[in-house]
Amino acid sequence: MKDRLKSLMNRFAHREEVVTVPEPVGKEETGMIFTIEELDRKMAECHAAAAISDAAMRRAFTTFRMAPTGTDLDPFGKEYAKQQMALYEGIAGKPYRLQNEAYPHDIAQLDKPFPYSTGAPEVIGGQYLAIGSLIRRLHVSAPARIVEFGAGWGNMALALAQSGYEVTAVDIEKGFTDLIRRRATQMDLPVQTINADFMWAETAAERFDAVVFFECFHHCADHPRLLRALHRIVRPEGRVYFVGEPIEDRLPVPWGVRLDGESLWAIRQHGWLELGFQETYFREILRRTGWNVVRYASTEYAAAHVWVATAIR
Predict the structure, then answer these.
(1) Residues facing residue 213 across a β-bridge
(2) Of 96, 106, 133, 122, which Cα lies nearest the Cα of 215?
């Protein structure tokens, strides 16, 4: 595994033309790791911290990252995507499948879903900031139809339903759709749930006034395909909203696997795909798939930035 990861990292040899990254001063000072063995040691530290508290685990995430990478390949080409998936597989230790995105759990034990389960005011408050940032940018009033992909715990979907919107929540994990139904029933909210992956957009017979991605678009293994499919389900004057997505120019490649501690933990522990996008690339892939996009920045919280896409006419 060590040789496999080293080979993958060499294939992504860093170039100054892509991004300039300072040379590491030393592993202890920078938290930089280079092998799967080092990553697994850090994973053990994260597990030990998680036994203390969620906050301790999140602090542990900040103590390590993998060396940044670059590539000469066309970021819009198939070979580039193949290399990024190879890098993912080297870290995850297994091939990528949709089933990797599952998060099995017993909904009977989830009386306090995320973020409330963390007990961390900054995490809970951050969720409220992001949800509020999206709602205040909505271009339609209730009872307009909104579909949220990757709805997860249901916090965004339920907030939209409480605001009077007709909400459809889509998630690949049946446990999450069951949880959303349970929470919606407790709150007497009519939320439709669909257990499906992102590509439900290619076959859905319904159309919506708005599509929402909240902290989930970066899990899509074929985001150009998904962006093209969205034209089928968005009404002519509709919008696509991206909130809490890792779109930032400090990523050392146009798009690809994120190598910060939290992302590495999610990939190695759960097998989740954790991608990031440079802003220039994100704007261009939207344009190439038929969308204009505007960014509304939050001055308080980076995860509350809202990107709003409209179809190019």
Answers:
(1) 149, 242
(2) 133
**Residue 169: pLDDT band with limits 50, 70, 90:** very high
Amino acid at 102: A
pLDDT score of 238: 97
CA distances to 39, 74, 89, 173, 195 from 71, in Å: 23, 8, 17, 33, 36
CB atoms closer than 10 angstroms to residue 24: 12
Q: Which two tokens stand for residue 41?
A: 């040691």
The answer to whether the CB of 30 falls within 8 A of the CB of 21 is no
Task: Write out the two tokens for 71.
Answer: 């590539």
Q: Based on the number of CB atoms within 10 Å of its own CB, is 130 exposed (0-12), middle (13-18) or buried (19 or more)?
A: buried
Check residue 70 and give its pLDDT: 67
Indicate if the pLDDT at residue 207 is higher than 50.
Answer: yes
Residue 184 to residue 177: CA distance in whole angstroms: 10
Q: Note whether 148 and 169 are within 8 A (CB).
A: yes
Fold of 107-260+271-311: Rossmann fold (3.40.50)
Q: How far apart are the first and last CA of the chain?
A: 49
Both tokens of residue 74? 């066309």
DSSP code for 23: P
pLDDT value for 19: 29
Instruction: Indicate the domain borders of the chain.
Output: 2-99, 107-260+271-311
pLDDT at 256 over 90: yes
Segment 35-62 mean pLDDT: 95
